[in-house]
Amino acid sequence: MEAEILKFICANQGAVDAEELMYNLFPGESTTEVISNQSKFALCSSNGQQRVVARTSLRLCRKKDCPGTCEGLHLCKNFLFSGSCHFLQRRGCSFPHVLNSDYNQRLLIEHELEGLSRAELCTLLLQSDNSMLPSVSPPTGVLCWLPVLFS
Question: What region holds the PARP12-like CCCH zinc finger tandem domain (predicted)?
Fold first, then answer.
């Protein structure tokens, strides 16, 4: 049941209204017990409405020549994002471009993520691992810019 809920949430951009989840996926059943699994789901409130957000502890491996002892997916981040990698055509890419390798499949099964598409897995990993997001730096010459944005 968790795998179906996770797939539903990831297919809907990583978060759904709790009521919508209950109504569409398992009407009449208690999905609140399943979504209380804090390693896979987070409940948050937005404008008084509860949303369920999918998450995972699985990460991408960042080592270019990892021997396979890291417990992270061996996959190119560009390939994960778009299904292709522009580095392959230029100078080559150091990271694997095979999501369904034996190593990656073992990890996906361990984390119960084997049923997710590449796009759904991308959504899940992006919202679970802040290091996959691009860094944002303040505009040049602005020392204290956050209060300006939120005042």
Answer: 59-104
CATH number of 2-54: 1.10.10
Structure tokens at 39: 């390693």
Q: Report domain extents, the chain.
A: 2-54, 77-132
Distance, CA of 149 to CA of 53 (rounded, Å): 26
Pairing of strands 15-17, 41-46: unpaired
Q: What is the pLDDT of residues 101-135, one digit of tens each?
A: 999 999 999 999 999 999 999 999 999 988 776 66
At 123, the amino acid letter reads T
Residue 91's SS3 state is coil
d(CA 118, CA 61): 16
**First and final C-alpha spacing in the chain:** 44
**Model pLDDT for residues 16-70, shown as the tens digit of each residue:** 998 888 887 766 666 677 677 889 999 888 788 888 999 999 999 988 888 888 9
- Biggest CA–CA distance in the chain, Å, is 57
Give me the phi and psi of 87, to 5 degrees please.
-75, -25
pTM here?
0.79
Q: Are the C-beta atoms of 71 and 87 separated by less than 8 Å?
A: no
